[in-house]
Amino acid sequence: MVRSVLEEMRIRSLGVIDDAVVELSPGFTAVTGETGAGKTMVVTSLGLLLGGRADPALVRIGAKSAVVEGRIAVPADAPAVVRAEEAGAELDDGALLISRTVSAEGRSRAHLGGRSVPVGLLGELADDLVAVHGQTDQQGLLKPARQRQALDRYAGDAVSVPLEKYAAAYRRLRGVAAELDELTTRARERAQEADLLRFGLDEIAAVEPRAGEDVELAAEAERLGHAEALASAAAAGHAALAGNPEDPEGVDAGLLVGGAQRALDAVRSHDPALAALAERLGEIGILLADVAGELAGYADDLDADPLRLAAVEERRAALTQLTRKYGASVDAVLAWSEESAARLTELDGDDDRIGELTAERDALSSELAGLAQALTDARTEAAERFAAAVTQELASLAMPHARVTIAIRQTEVAEDADGIEVGGRPVAYTATGVDEVELLLAPHPGAPPRPIAKGASGGELSRVMLAVEVVFAGSDPVPTYLFDEVDAGVGGKAAVEVGRRLAKLARSAQVVVVTHLPQVAAFADRQLLVEKTNDGSVTRSGVQALEGEDRVRELSRMLAGQEDSETARAHAEELLAAARAD
Prior knowledge:
Blueprint: E1 5-14, E2 17-23, E3 28-32, H1 39-49, E4 65-73, H2 79-86, E5 95-103, E6 108-112, E7 115-117, H3 119-129, E8 130-133, H4 135-140, H5 144-155, H6 157-185, H7 187-207, H8 213-225, H9 227-242, H10 253-265, H11 272-301, H12 306-326, H13 330-348, H14 350-395, E9 403-410, E10 420-422, E11 425-427, E12 435-442, E13 450-451, H15 452-455, H16 458-474, E14 480-484, H17 492-505, E15 510-514, H18 518-521, E16 526-534, E17 539-546, H19 548-560, H20 566-581
């Protein structure tokens, strides 16, 4: 099976490292060096490539920026490749090139396959490429929440499948509960709103306004209020145009225009221009007669009924009461009425909706309780296997009598918290279930199991956490693991066993270990030395692969602090021989 391999990293201007290339083995690579030489910068560099936080303090003094570049060989169908190609990245001869730059001012840039990408994308890819098991992670695994996560990942589909079902039901329940809470806690407000809407709709229905009615009544009221003046003006206009029957000697506009037309008609044959004027006078006469007739009809039809005016004003007053409350015009009032009727229908349906949601909540709570129990059962079964595997690893790490167990219990719900019935008692539930997971250690027969943070000495704790990480890593699909001095506090025969266990893990995955133990380094397929030199002006750190005599000298230094000690050299050669023969 083809798997991803971190082939090399180039580090420039990062901490004590000026410019170094770290070439890694597909199997087990050990990174060694004196304290302060820069071994931690190897871990830090990989963290930057994986989207870790950029600290400008890491930039080498005098440099403008620090740069870390990595080359990871990946299968073409790997999830990381698919995600990278979606971002526009391209593979370089089957390898993914990653670059991270951190400026002294704190700015950070990331490149993936030749394309500039958000730093967060590197973090997404890291989940599929590299798992870092460092001292910080070791401390994190002391927390029950991290132990639950580790157990779930170890269990695989046995837990992930019921957990997915549980999480979906949990999300539905939370949504239903939130809507139900909103309806019930705002019931009084919504009832008050419904009463106001109902009152307004009843008030509008009692008046029964018509669209545009306020405009029509305003015009009618204006006409009725000035009926006498309008009738007098119409009569005067009619008399001026058509004459007054009671004054035979009076002169009117129609008579004058008619006389003018007759005068022109007598001579119109002599000049076409004058004939045209005569025609226009004829048209004026006709128009005057029409207007006079309409004025006579207007005056006859004009209703000066004071009762009608009073009725109009009363109707207008009723409409004004509506427009003051519900809209600037009758049309706006009608629009408010339509919207409010729809809203009232919604509010009136709250009681039914509350009943429906209550029933749905109860059904989901029952379903969630069953799923929670199934999830607990799956974790319990996986916990037994996980604990047995860790106990077996401890036996290989010079702790043959230690026994690891995993306690799974449910936290009872507080009085003011949400809860469901599991096993006949109310327990608190979260998005990940109702279980609390805790790793317990009995270091020797007769000792009571205690949480590993309290039940193990420093050296025992390191070995327990290494065993946990090795077992956990063995079940993890990530192909590359970086262990940062997780062998701290371990020595002697136990250290040899640590190296042996890491070498075993390297048969199925790439393993990179930053270590100070020669017993561990001896088992590595490739050993890298991080060492400082001083050129008189700046301190530089280089990384070199050790072979043959150079590796023996470094192991001798790690054993006795003296590269040329014959006893240390003999011990180093013995370690290497034993590791090769294992």
